[in-house]
Amino acid sequence: MSQEHHQSFLTKYIFSTDHKMVAKQFLLLALAMAVFGGFYAFLIRWELAYPNQPAPFFGVVTPDKYNVIITLHGTIMLFFVGMPLLNAFPSNFLVPLMIGARDMAFPRLNMASFWMTFVAAILLISSFFVPGGPVAGGWTGYAPLSASSEFTGVKAGAVLWILSLALIFIASSLGGINYLVTVVTMRAKGMTYSRVPLTVWFLLAAAMTFFLAVGPILAGAFMLLMDNVFGTGFFLPGKGGEPLLWQHLFWFFGHPEVYVLFFPTLGFVLDISAVFARKPVFGQKLIIGSTVVAIALSFIVWAHHMFQTGMNPTLVTPFAITTILISVPFAIIYICMFLTIHNGSISLEPPMLWALGFLATFLVGGLTGIFLGAAGADIYLHGTYFVIAHFHYTMFPSVFFGGYAAINYWYPKMFGRMLNKTAATIHFVLTFIFFNCTFWPLFIVGMGGMVRRIADPSFYPQFSPFVHLNIFATISAMCLIATQTIFLWNFFSSMKNGKKAELNPYQANTLEWLAQSPPPHGNWGPKLPVVTSGPYEYSEPNKTEDWHTQAPSYKGEASHG
Amino acid sequence: MFELFKYLPEGISSFSGDIDSLIHFIYLLTGIFFVLFEGFLIYVVFRFRKKNSPKAKYELGDKWAQIQWVVAFVAVVVCLDFFIDVKSTKVWELLKEQVPATDVNIKVVAKQFDWTFVYPDKEGKFDSDQALSSYRELHVPVGKKVHVILTSQDVIHDFFLPEVRLKQDVMPGREINAWFDTNKVGTYHIVCNELCGFGHTRMLAVLHVDDEKTYENWKVQLYKQLHGGV
Predict the structure, then answer these.
(1) Which domains does chain B have, with CATH numbers?
(2) Whole-model pTM?
């Protein structure tokens, strides 16, 4: 690959079209935005435990600031941490390597996708510096509150928020097209669909789900923008508009979006489980089939977020039934995950710890969803801290346990060095403990009737019996955030000081482990790998080795240069 | 730390018991699955660690004999799910699908960041000058079915009575009909449960469940306050 030798700093690190560099850019963006999102989480928890006392590094979290903080926490964590970390970063890094391609189908589209995401992040953060401050209507942006500045005093901030989201949605769509075309057209010889690893399958599932969901939210965002800028009143009843229309558009996108942030982690966990249990993934075809069913169903469950809105109450039962049905494919996938490690030969390396931690914690999120999917129980629990606890038990394991599993697992391939194993293990153990200590008490608090999105709990004497639980959750959250510095230290210092990584430190079958660590521009030597077997042939009977690569004839970089 | 229901407020309506028993029922079922799965996970991690299980078993899970147990298990899950849903739908239909014949009609007007409760005049009209407006205080007679007509003048609010176990969004541009009853005299909470702006956190009101006599006296007093003597 001749172009490798003629890259300036600008084209290599900034306006790079190399899929691996774009992936690292997305990863760094996600980590940087996670610092913001985590700081807002700290402020939220501080205010809930110590209302009206000045928070360290910030000051008093007044109600108007509190509303800004919860809005930005949600927006940042889902769209600027979750999507770059779980979709853009792994899709860019892994898809070409795992299918045996030299790069993405559209490298410049890829670069555009990153820089649009970057501009979107800048737009969001710049809203701090406009009159009226950033948007404060909650990350769900319910109209009319979000549709007119007369209700919040925020005008420019709302416009920037909408533009920022619209931009990142478009950027993610461009990325998604790219991943899809790459997998369809650029698989190496012999890489049939049944030999494509599940990580790639699930990254594609996420991209497909996002495509199908994003249209309505872009239409909604456009209308919301018109309402804010030109006073069109699509969502304002005083002008003949309909507030519920926004909620339908939002959740038609919003529920599938949850799976966009969930599917990639399923792929990581399954691939990692196979490698560290030395066993084939159990029921690979069953898992893929279940995923297709889950995607289809994810578009007809959205109204379960809206049971208490005053929509036609007889519509509730059909949506409760689809919500139950969607538990079927996910239950199947979950059991297949358990059966993948069952009868295995498990080593508890850090990536495997994150995968197991995901299984243990996401279970709680899944089970507590049943309370909220039952419309009768939702009458009481909707909008309480029970909901907060529930969706943090789904999103945190997906985004962070899944994200950390991926980073820990593919770090040697990304940077050519190993993470410090002791630090990685401590990071996992502390994160696991403090995550549970932060969110478990919130189920009890929510059952006690504490409602979400209130800035000043001291105003609610009925919450005083469980103030100790709120303080406990806050201290745990602070420890959880502090624990992440172990990761950041390990991540950055291991790039220079980590032990040199072998090509294939885990004896894994998939193609990315045949490439150099880190892979050069163009990924492969003069000849592309030729695939002759599936990704999960571990511990086959009557073989001496318990693994063999998918492309045994690949000669590597021998004649590279 | 593990008593999920320790702070659940005491229910004071005819349907609060139904909602609570539904929540307890789901807790029981999900609790069983929680223990089963976490137990299985811990068992697998210890039993099949490399030192206890040096060689993994080659199982693809592509034969019916292997996956039939998965299917059977999921079938059980679905049955239990539907069982929950049947129970849930009963509560939902009772409370949300229609308003039964009620004894008292009250209009609830929400706006940033206040609750106003309007009691109709003798002819049942809310817009006459004989109608009574109570600010941030909702009085209802104990044991009576109360019909609330929910309206908002600006953004979406949510009418949440934790002890009654009633929650209903209040939408601008429409009237939403809801109902509840009470069975215990006392003072309870009304909370706005939908983010409605910077004053959302203080959008509270008080629910007074009065005996018949106190309720009537209160209305007379309120009339005097609003209209200055009779």
Answers:
(1) 16-97 (no CATH), 104-227 (2.60.40.420)
(2) 0.96
